[in-house]
Amino acid sequence: MHWLFPSLRGYRRQWLGRDALAGMTVWAVLVPEALAYAAIAGVSPVVGLYAAPAALLLYAAFGSSRHLVTGPMAATAALSAAIVGDTVDGSSADFTTMTAALAVTVGIAALLAGLLRLGFVASFISEPVLKGFVVGLALTIIAGQLPKLFGVEGGSGNFFEKIWTLIGNLGGTGGFTVLLGAGSLALILGLKRVAPRVPGSLVAVALGIVLAAAFGLEERGVDVVGSIGTGLPSFGFPDVSVDDLGGLAAGSVGVTLVAFAEGLGAAKSYAARDHYEIDGNRELIGLGAAGLGAGLSSGMVVNGSLSKTAVNRSAGARTQLSGILVAALTVVTLLFLTGLFEQLPEAVLAGVVIAAVVELVDIHSLVPLYRVFTRRLGQAYGVAARPDFTAAIAAMLGVLVFDTLPGLFIGIGVSLLLLLYRSSRPVISELGQLPGNGRFAALDRHSESHRIPGVVVLRVEGGIYFANAERIRSEARRAAAREGVTAVVIDAETVPFVDVSAVHMLDDLAEELEALGGRLLLARDVGQVRDVLRTSEGRTELRRVHPTVREAVDAARTGG
Predict the structure, then answer these.
(1) Interior CA angle at 188 toward 186 and 190, to 5°?
(2) Do β-strands 519-523 and 487-491 pair in parallel, antiparallel, or remain unpaired?
(3) Distance separating alpha carbons of residues 166 and 150, to the nearest angstrom
(4) What digits encode the pLDDT tens for the residues 162-210?
(5) Which residues contact 225 (CB under 8 A, 6 or more apart)?
(6) First-to-last CA distance in the chain?
(7) Where are the alpha helices (DSSP H) in 516-548?
(8) pTM summary value
(9) Cα separation of 327 and 55, whole Å?
């Protein structure tokens, strides 16, 4: 059992005060946000609180981060609402039960992935795709919460349909409702700016409850949360059929990817600051255990939270004891304090949700992706010259138009297609010799370099394989067709790999040039390239790779 609660090993008594303070601070943030994220998931606000204790405790037992706080989050809550909404129509189970079942399936998927050591899979969601996805998701969440803020009927469909419905219903805006909602949003954002250590969400929730009770706002047409059961949740496997679980399985894989990518990013960020290591596979097991615990506690999908982890560390947390304390305080809240939230206005809750996700609408973070561009990339790749920006925009628009999970996979698909496209069209630079030192550099980057008479030197900036072999052959042919050229030298220093198709292409190209009275020579191969060339059958000359470009050029000119 030595692998349980890794962050508590070697615990020091002087850490207790910091962990206790951090735990209470995180609890003050978690309670209102858990209520809000449950609303995003389409279930009763108390479900967010149900999910937290088991998730926090089990992550502390199995996870590798000392600081990561696990609980309901906006992105996975929105994904949960979409997946459960698509599945529950053909099921006898209700929405809340299916939400808990999804948490269980996500937990099982993450556990299996961790045990199979599949932590590398998160790499397939690139940072730009995740940025675009989160921006689109945050905008969609805000569009879904604005009707509650204005006290009007909301619409269904994608982001644009929801906004259009909202605009059409603005004539029925409730005065007290919009005053409460907008005031709560302004209060939270204002406190975040002028007093960042004050839990603005908790202040807004408490103030909203007091105002609703004192002035009888429910009788004045303000919607409130309503009845919330006091006490601990029921424990056990959700009452769903095997067919229901099968319907949730595909969606749970997407949720697991997003949950793991978000949580791993937060964990690694703070581990780097405190100089300790994060085990990706152990993080999957910690996420799986947390999700399973949340689902078996009648909760919802959970994952690591960057914002609450930031609060945890800034409050002085040293270990996961802070998370364990948050779990205990949440249990106390469920036993004695849930009745207070029955008078919470829906508009205030909407304000809390919008305040929590508005910072995720980080359009500014997409601008640097657009700026990563050079003329050479534009000439080589055209529309694919900004692959990260293109993938981010594809993910964002995919979420806004087609919904959350399709948007994620659109972003992943576009990024992989762009990767394949770029690898099939590697940059091929012609090199010239620099005066004085005899080194070779790209002609279009170094105007002082000059061509070697009779010899063309090409540098392929990427692996050579079946998808780009013909393009490289065409460039070499074009170079060899110039007047007076008798040899083509390929500088392979920037070629990380070749496959058998590439070797055959090089052999055929060498024969073709030889028939025309020319030669093909290779220079500066690296390990894997060298191994493949020397173990593949073919022309002996190409297996003798010259150690430098200078030697290859000399051999081409002297016939050596």
Answers:
(1) 65
(2) parallel
(3) 9
(4) 999 999 988 888 888 899 999 999 999 999 889 887 888 888 888 999 9
(5) 35, 45, 341, 342, 343, 344, 345, 346, 349
(6) 67
(7) 527-535, 540-543
(8) 0.76
(9) 8
